[in-house]
Specification:
Strand content: 25-35%
Mean pLDDT: 89
Low-confidence stretches: 9-27
Number of strands: 12
Shape: elongated
Distance between the termini: 38 Å
Radius of gyration: 26 Å
Length: 287
């Protein structure tokens, strides 16, 4: 075997190895854990007034007992996805919350995607009865007190739950990834203006089914509502053989080193690196 052929072989091998490594890097999954940036309780009133828990240590869902006249509670939570690069593909999403008090046995708590924006004010009270709302608090009637009301009292959300979890004893619970949760987060990532979060709806048919969860204001940060998101970065443009997000001279060098062979530089998958692949690379030129 001549030295020229050996050099060509070594160059091709190196190019293929580099290309494979870059493709592996591009395709690898990333994981991020995000804590809620807003969480409130919508409190159904029984006297015509409005109540809020914008800055409370807890959020609630379900129906309270006779002492509270059997009114409803719904917990609304939102997450900031800006740390996930735009264009990423969401692979899995799980939601985790810590239930610190329960008034009955096992009941389902369902996450529904919210369809309207809402605010979190500075109202604070202990217990699930709430207090007078502060500016921009979300209440049963208002999504931003006292200037904007929900189209439907109790919050506007998708009727079908994105995920359901049965909760019973005090402790941490995880709503495991399902396609609907993935779809929700993908939507919010692709269209941030629609990121209104989820509402947690408990058993609203039976008295004394209310569940208390820790909010983002809880002193124990490990108990804050959080999501774990697994995603892959946006695909590189055709011709980006070194994975730097651009198609330029460095990629041409890799392609030329693989000329006549196969591997990642075979952009049209014809079985050989040739002029057609060079044309694809040049058509995506991004210096």
């Amino acid at each position: 075997m001549s030295r020229h052929v050996v050099r060509q072989y070594l160059a091709l091998t190196a190019a293929v190895a580099i290309g494979a490594a870059q493709i592996s890097s591009i395709a690898s999954a990333e994981t991020v854990v995000l804590k809620s940036v807003a969480d409130v309780t919508l409190i159904e009133p029984n006297d015509g007034l409005q109540y809020a828990l914008g800055a409370a240590y807890n959020i609630y869902c379900g129906r309270v007992g006779i002492s509270g006249l059997g009114t409803l509670r719904r917990a609304v939570v939102r997450f900031d996805l800006s740390s996930i690069p735009a264009g990423s593909v969401i692979l899995s999403v799980s939601y985790k919350a810590y239930m610190s008090q329960t008034s009955s046995g096992a009941n389902d708590c369902k996450l529904h995607r919210m369809l309207a924006p809402w605010g979190e004010g500075t109202s604070f009270a202990f217990g699930g009865g709430g207090t007078s709302p502060e500016l921009n608090d979300a209440t049963w009637k208002y999504n931003f007190w006292p200037t904007s009301t929900w189209a439907v009292a109790g919050g506007v959300f998708v009727p079908t739950a994105s995920a359901t979890k049965s909760v019973n004893a005090v402790g941490s619970y995880t709503w495991a990834t399902v396609p609907a949760l993935v779809s929700d987060v993908q939507l919010w990532l692709d269209t941030p203006a629609l990121n209104y979060g989820w509402v947690m709806v408990g058993n609203e048919a039976t008295l004394e089914t209310a569940k208390r969860f820790e909010s983002r204001e809880s002193a124990d940060s490990t108990r804050h509502p959080m999501i774990t998101v697994v995603y892959t970065l946006a695909s590189a443009p055709p011709g980006d053989l070194n994975g730097d997000g651009k198609v330029n001279g460095a990629d041409i060098a890799i392609l030329l080193a693989a000329w006549g062979g196969t591997g990642p530089a075979d952009l049209d998958h014809s079985g050989i690196v040739d002029g057609a692949d060079l044309a694809i690379l040049l058509s995506n030129w991004q210096p």
